[in-house]
Amino acid sequence: MIKTELNYGDVYLVPKKTIVDSRKDCDTSVAFGPHRFAMPVYPSNMKSVVNEETCELFARQGWFYTMHRFNVDVVAFVRRMQSQGLIASISMGVNEDSYQQVADLKAAGLTPEYITLDIANAWCVKAERMITHLKEAFPQSFLIGGNVATAEAARDLEAWGCDAIKAGIAGGRVCITKNKTGFHRPMISTVSDCAAAVQIPVIADGGIVEHGDIAKALVCGATMVMAGSMFAGFDESAGDLVEIGGKLYKEYFGSASQFNKGAYVNVEGKKILVEYKGAIGKLLAELTEDLQSSVSYAGGRDLSALRGVEMITVPR
Ligand SMILES: NC(=O)C1=CN([C@@H]2O[C@H](COP(=O)(O)OP(=O)(O)OC[C@H]3O[C@@H](n4cnc5c(N)ncnc54)[C@H](OP(=O)(O)O)[C@@H]3O)[C@@H](O)[C@H]2O)C=CC1
Ligand SMILES: Nc1nc2c(ncn2[C@@H]2O[C@H](COP(=O)(O)O)[C@@H](O)[C@H]2O)c(=O)[nH]1
């Protein structure tokens, strides 16, 4: 028997009676780990999306962020952020270079507030080993493990010691994993299954096409949402600006693309051009307005209202 599963575009949310006088009265802030953030959405930890300046900007605006893990001097990065009174949120892999980064941070006496273990399929022994190592080295840090796509994987990462998990495999805009390996789960099904399986927060990662998809992810039980392409076209996005035929674009490439790896080996990502859209401030304001509106349609004053919302599918 083949199961049918759902993606963001397959569902809508059923409105309730609005109880606020203005959408501005709806609070979009979220408690995540030891801090509260302005919004439950943040840019992907990808080299074509964030750099040190992007991370600093998000932290200053009170939004969560995670620096990517590719050729980063983590000691300098953590020091830079913490010396300004900002949270330090870094990514780690599972190979020797990441164990060395852990040792370097310890030697420097630095503890990042947030660490994200970032590999394509974290339901593996290499990830378990690193999660155990990170929890021993930095028991005070909030550890996010990812990515996973099933309830069983989510439960394992919780048991291994993760404080949150990141859910979403092969749903990203520059992903070619599903084409090259055949593996993928749509996001509504992934997030719902993972969130129902664990007590720890779940981050819905990838596949956000429309702003309303963020509300849908929260209805499915996500606490946070990670998005790449949505944050990729701006002045503050890390990708290069290119001009083609008089039109401006920003480069957006996958972390498992040849452009990120520097070689065509185990490539599961591609590069695309996204329309250049100017300063990112407009997007952050619009995302906030749209989510405030979602909360009002959910009949509440804050994000908790989204948890009780009914979801429907629409025949195509
Ligand atoms: N969210 C998603 O759907 C996906 C995200 N990505 C992103 O791309 C980047 C690279 O990811 P990833 O390839 O995991 O990391 P790496 O290329 O850094 O691989 C990490 C280590 O795990 C091993 N490894 C990776 N995949 C497998 C596998 N399928 N079976 C056995 N061992 C494996 C690798 O060895 P070896 O190379 O020798 O196999 C390597 O030693 C990450 O930033 C990740 O987030 C990539 C694909 C999907
Ligand atoms: N299969 C791949 N997935 C990737 C790669 N690089 C990043 N990612 C994942 O995609 C999301 C962003 O998705 P978007 O739809 O919001 O653009 C990102 O957070 C990663 O989880 C890759 O090379 N291959």
Automatic annotation (TrEMBL):
Residues 6-308 form the IMP dehydrogenase/GMP reductase domain. InterPro entries: Aldolase_TIM (IPR013785), GMP_reductase (IPR050139), GuaC_type_2 (IPR005994), IMP_DH_GMPRt (IPR001093). The keyword NADP applies. Its EC number is 1.7.1.7. The keyword Ubl conjugation does not apply. GO terms for cellular component: cytosol; GMP reductase complex. GO terms for molecular function: GMP reductase activity; oxidoreductase activity, acting on the CH-OH group of donors, NAD or NADP as acceptor. Pfam families: IMPDH (PF00478). GO terms for biological process: purine nucleotide metabolic process. The active site is at 175 (thioimidate intermediate). It catalyses: IMP + NH4(+) + NADP(+) = GMP + NADPH + 2 H(+). NADP(+) binds at residues 202-225. Keywords: NADP, Oxidoreductase. Belongs to the IMPDH/GMPR family. GuaC type 2 subfamily. PANTHER family: GMP REDUCTASE. Catalyzes the irreversible NADPH-dependent deamination of GMP to IMP. It functions in the conversion of nucleobase, nucleoside and nucleotide derivatives of G to A nucleotides, and in maintaining the intracellular balance of A and G nucleotides. This is GMP reductase.
